[in-house]
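> example.struct
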């Protein structure tokens, strides 16, 4: 249930209203916007005397919310959430680009790529230290050593780093990571989500390859219910009957998520398509669809990459892409 407070209501009246509502045993989340104040009621609202609450001078209107996700719901939080990482903001109308290799392979590799993607305009460095792979025989990442190399690349370039966590016990290793990524395979690892919900560090949550939009938002709800509201949603393609591409990029999900939720949404065209030449057109389409950012896999020698070389673009191709998306951003009124 949502209660919209009348404009220019005094704080004392709002406090009295919150106290009255609290007597019904529900929790009240208050969101103060530029033009109005919204009270989100979470819990069993069936016992609330709606007529009594409606009669209060501070109340403009009451709305019932049917969706199971509350904190991630735009009805509770009408204005867009902006997630800030240092001087970089995601969700403020700009288009941020996260770029780097699927896997950290060596110090020389990650620092070279970091310098080149930064020169082209990337605002974050991505790189996998712990790699979930379909085959147990595939390269699993450099693990803790990979995290150290990412931090070295950050020192060399100043780029904040984004990397994936796979288990709760690894949390102490991620203390200096700027944005923790929850991969598609862990989107419904609820115990992991609960632990990450206790942090204030930004979480990049990827949509599961076979999950609905509502399930995706419910996973975000796990993070937010723990107190962490710094959540970034990432559409990375879903599994359909189509086999030409690695996954099917659901660009409609970008618009749907922006309508249903206030959280920023980025798109990963690399994992969504799995094909190098499709990364550029899908990246452009994602911006046109309203995405707040892109996540692009960049490798200095894709043919020799230890993981996902087929979907990685070269630094030169990334530089061209960044130049090509500039007029699209401008046409869409984006920064």
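> example.seq
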């Amino acid at each position: 249930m949502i209660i919209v407070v009348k404009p220019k209501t005094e704080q004392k009246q709002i406090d009295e209203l919150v106290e009255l509502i609290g007597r019904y045993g529900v929790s009240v989340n208050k969101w103060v916007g530029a033009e109005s104040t919204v009270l989100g009621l979470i819990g069993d609202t069936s016992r609330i005397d709606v007529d009594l609450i409606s009669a209060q001078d501070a109340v403009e209107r009451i709305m019932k919310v049917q969706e199971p996700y509350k904190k991630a719901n735009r009805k509770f939080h009408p204005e867009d959430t902006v997630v800030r990482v240092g001087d970089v903001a995601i969700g403020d109308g700009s288009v941020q680009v996260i770029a780097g290799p699927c896997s950290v392979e060596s110090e020389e590799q990650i620092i070279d790529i970091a310098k080149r993607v930064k020169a082209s305009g990337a605002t974050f460095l991505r790189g996998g230290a712990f790699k979930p792979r379909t085959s147990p025989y595939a390269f699993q990442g450099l693990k803790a050593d990979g995290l150290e190399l990412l931090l070295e690349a950050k020192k060399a370039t100043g780029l904040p780093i984004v990397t994936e966590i796979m288990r709760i016990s690894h949390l102490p290793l991620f203390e200096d990571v700027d944005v923790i990524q929850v991969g598609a395979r862990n989107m419904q690892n609820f115990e992991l989500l609960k632990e990450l919900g206790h942090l204030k560090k930004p979480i990049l949550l990827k949509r599961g390859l076979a999950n609905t939009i509502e399930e995706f938002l419910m996973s975000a709800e796990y993070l937010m219910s723990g107190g962490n509201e710094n959540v970034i949603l990432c559409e990375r393609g879903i599994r359909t009957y189509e086999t030409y591409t690695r996954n099917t990029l659901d660009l409609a999900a970008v618009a749907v998520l922006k309508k249903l939720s206030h959280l920023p949404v980025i798109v990963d065209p690399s994992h969504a398509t799995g094909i190098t030449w499709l990364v550029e057109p899908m990246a452009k389409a994602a911006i046109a669809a309203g995405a707040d950012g892109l996540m692009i896999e960049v490798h200095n020698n894709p043919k020799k990459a230890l993981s996902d070389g087929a979907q990685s673009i070269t630094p030169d191709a990334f530089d061209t892409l960044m130049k090509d998306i500039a007029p699209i951003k401008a046409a869409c009124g984006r920064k």
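> remarks
The CA atoms of residues 39 and 316 lie 50 Å apart.
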